[in-house]
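Step 1: inspect the first sequence and its tokens.
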Amino acid sequence: MKATRIFLLAVMTMAVCGAGHAQASKTRARKAPASASAPAKAQAAKEASAQPQQPSEFEVFMASMMKNAFVVVRQDYHLVDDDEGEVKTAEGKDYWGRTYSMGVRVGDSDYLISGEAVRPWVKDGLPKSASLRPEVSRTAVRSFEAVEFEPWEFDADGVAELRDKRLYTSGGSEEPGLSLVGFSGQTRGYAVWAVPAAALSEGADTPAMRLVFAKTSVNFNDARTLYDIDSAGAADAFGGVYVVPVSERPGCVDFCVAGVFQRVGGIWKLVSVADGTELKPTASAGSCANPLDRLITDIDSGMQEFLCEIGLQ
């Protein structure tokens, strides 16, 4: 009987110890994921940061106002052999080279374009030749939301130079655009970046574009043309502009293009519009064909945020 009690006591002790050990194992098992979850959390945070952020109501509002002003300019060029009187093109193509750059509709019927659009062969790094002369052969444009390019009767001799062979205006737009204004002194506005869903290339030149906005301030100096900018969020940008909101009368806010972002030595710089420049669309050129339904739908949040952003509230 005594042996039986000892045996039962030993069994109970083993059971209790086993239960305690099992409980400890469960506790450790529960704690293990906590320590192991740190890398998982870091990975989740990394993946979350990699996801594109949803635009705010203000950005949606701004994009709806500006999207039709931005275009992709496609330039084809060939080589003219003045000695032989021949036009040279690349094998299997009717042009020698093709480039893409960003343009902006400004005023009643003008495009604001870069030196890359006027001299596309420079972007391609075409070497100088005594006998071969590059010449723009065909130009086309498309709005960011369009899926097809429309021909543009581009006249290289008819462009107006605005800034040191970097900014030009040229007629030919069938739609009015944004105001083009040169400022002097301190300004507050927005960097507007055009970011394509994929890089533009021959055969894949109609990717969707989205506009990304960032608050920016620039102190313009008449003696300068190029300005450093914060381009941390523009790694994949196709191009961009700096706009300054101006209120000229009650109920009217004009987002004026004050500069264009261009790569200089591989780094994004702001090319300013010369002080005194003013090219605005006339009242007759505009229309009310594009009511801002989204703003009306979200009038409380949208309008309040808008007024705060432009400093009117």
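Step 2: inspect the second sequence and its tokens, then contrast the two.
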Amino acid sequence: MTLPAKPVQRPAKLALTVSDALGTDAAASRIAEIQKRTLALSNFTYLCIRDDLRSPDSFADICGVAAVLWEGPLVIESDEPEAIAKGCLHLVGRSPLVHCKEAHAEASAIAASLGCRVLSLPGDGGDAVDAGTQDLSEIPDAIHLLKGYDPARPVTVHVPAGEYGVSTAAAAMMLGADLVIADDLDAASCALLDRIATFRTVRRWDP
């Protein structure tokens, strides 16, 4: 007989993003702004570096800036194997999470070989200790897909900026998302989501 999952309090983690399209100087300013905005928030521990330019060298440069300025855990988001490889070389010893929006075997293999943890897409056979991902900014009703995730498998979602991103992030956490990446949020939205992340309860197996 299958026992029901018990609701447990399990804080979610959150991340804001910095784009390689900013260039190194503006990216440094952006990281400083994120640090100031989230300083008093216990769950905004991650920084996500986005590969928007599809330029491996530009992406690597921003990874280098983040490695120096951000002391917490990092997520690098790219589908380009060369960008992931060059970015990870700047993050040796940091063990960043790698978020591939598409199931990209070569990118995942490179990331794993460099000591990174790959956030795997649902159904791709990824290691259960890492996360299943679904990019909610591209599929508006994808929030409903969270209801079908394995509760033993951490879930990562990426939401857009603005009010829609706030509401989607809140719903995702209440449905069980463990790491929420948001493109941008103002200070009040960050504070709200941090509180939800702290006190939300999720259904997890509790043997």
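Step 3: confirm your contrast with the notes below.
The longest strand covers residues 13-19. DSSP finds six helices and ten strands in the chain.
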